[in-house]
User: Fold this.
Amino acid sequence: MYNFSPGPGVLFHDVLEYVQMEMLNWKNSGISILELNHRSPEFRSLLMNTKHKLRLLMNIPADYEILFLQGGATQMFSTIPLNFANKNDKVDYIVNGYWSNFAAKEASKFCNVNISNMSNFNDYTICPDQKDLKISSESKYVHYCDNETIHGCEFDYVPDVGDKPLICDMSSNFLSKLIDIKKFAMIYAGSHKNIGPAGMVLVIIRRNMLTNNKNDIPTMLNLVKLCEANSMLNTPPIFPIYVAGLTFKKIFDMGGIHEIEKMRDLKAQKLYNTIDNSNGFYTYRMQPQYRSKMNVPFQLKNEQLEHEFIEQAKVQGFIGLNGHHSVGHCRVSLYNAMTMDGVVKLCNFMVEFSTYRVLC
Amino acid sequence: MYNFSPGPGVLFHDVLEYVQMEMLNWKNSGISILELNHRSPEFRSLLMNTKHKLRLLMNIPADYEILFLQGGATQMFSTIPLNFANKNDKVDYIVNGYWSNFAAKEASKFCNVNISNMSNFNDYTICPDQKDLKISSESKYVHYCDNETIHGCEFDYVPDVGDKPLICDMSSNFLSKLIDIKKFAMIYAGSHKNIGPAGMVLVIIRRNMLTNNKNDIPTMLNLVKLCEANSMLNTPPIFPIYVAGLTFKKIFDMGGIHEIEKMRDLKAQKLYNTIDNSNGFYTYRMQPQYRSKMNVPFQLKNEQLEHEFIEQAKVQGFIGLNGHHSVGHCRVSLYNAMTMDGVVKLCNFMVEFSTYRVLC
Assistant:
């Protein structure tokens, strides 16, 4: 099976084998990781090691905290404005796809949202250029989504927002490339793409953002309190944390993020070449400059043909190729654990399918 | 190892073995359960089956919805008042331990909280009797915690609150006894006690509670929306849902909740007898009538002796015996997956330890 799902999706086979191997006896403790109490020294050590690995892997400076929380990225859409803005404050959102739009709408419940890229708002086929961004002078922060999983657009630069805190939803491309953490006030990412199983959101936050301890918001959404409690205000998502740690180790073993990034480029290039060379059998809407290297939505001539494509692919062992239910069509997700071999095989199938159909 | 942790704690060995067995190939799908996409028909079927099993097991009427959410029970402490009360509304809380107190304090951020058992508020060694409860006439709901995990008090009756909706935190004793669901407007329980691994809260809610779609609260805390989306407003906690389903099946195989309840009584009786027969070597604070059958906190003469007890127990393979960090001392948790054999062995150790110490 080659799993091209947008998340939850493919995980490293080595990681899954390791999880299986010690499922009944975690680190020779005599118990399963699923039975490990979060107040035990053993769990504290696991948490510390997992954070440490990520810090090394992503070169995260010492003045940034790492949190592992529940609720996914969608919950962060509320958590962020509730923590960093008051009712009458202004905040900035760059909106160029489903998720950044969702985040902006959620924030508008709690404060005043300015759309920074109003000149090309609603064009979900691009990322706005730096020159298109108009940041409010009194803005409390600027939020954007680095990779729009559904619409398949990915930023090829980090927006310069001056002295405003920059907050980034990196759910679907976190761990896929080297980033300069210092440019960000906060980065967050749902776990079920490149990190591990569903049920967690990873947060990297600069410590000087954690000053406003707002007692009138839900405690479980209070980032100051969550940070003070080292992600353990209540029982944390232990199993996703554990699998994340194994994934981080696997990436180290592969040579680090640098190697991952090289593989990512090769895989994306192969797939886009296949689409570009299909004589319009497969097409995509995204402007080439902003094409995502993680999630590649594309279309065939009509819905019937797309259905056949997805079904025949499934028979051949390629799964997860349907587009998001909000937009339909097809989509290939190329997360870190997808091998080049899998991409080559999929591309071969795409060529065969199109050749056969054109001949029919 | 005998794991007496308060949660996460011991799970059924059969369940863990099954998880291990199909970790690389869930239901012969060719992928791991950790790689399963939540928008796939396969996951929808898993979710439906899991809900169905629980409905049968707990005899949940058709007009109740079942939800599997993130954030744990602590997040529900905010979710409940945000959904069911407005700023100036009154709500009732019965407070007789750490968790019910936490829930009441959290609710007081969002509405007016009346403590229903004011006459014995702060006595964390009892559950208030029905006659001690003074429910406000204009109350939007009454909240209580059926089993206080830290203080070890468990209700032996369901409060009669007239026509007010009754909401119950059953985190630590859910699935341990037969309950009449119809008496409740809503029941919720963190997953990491009797249900499965950490990272989920299970909610059973009467459909007529889901009328107030409040658009000004965080979407991920909006019970109407969560219910409309069948627990899938965003990616749900797939792995805990999967393990919960295996746990429900295991309980069926054991003969259902009725058999679990019988075992529970025997295990608790054995442990309390051991404490009661120790000539004051082990003591507990809870009033006998309200002793929890799930979590048994107890003390030894002094902290040094408690430390030795916990350490020696660990050497013998009994883990998780320390009390909650907020109160100290010792605690034994007797969740469903703990065998009678484990309880007998622990009790034998307790007798040996006390005999040896008394002789010394």
Residues 150 and 324 of chain A are 6 Å apart (CA to CA). Chain A has a mean pLDDT of 97.
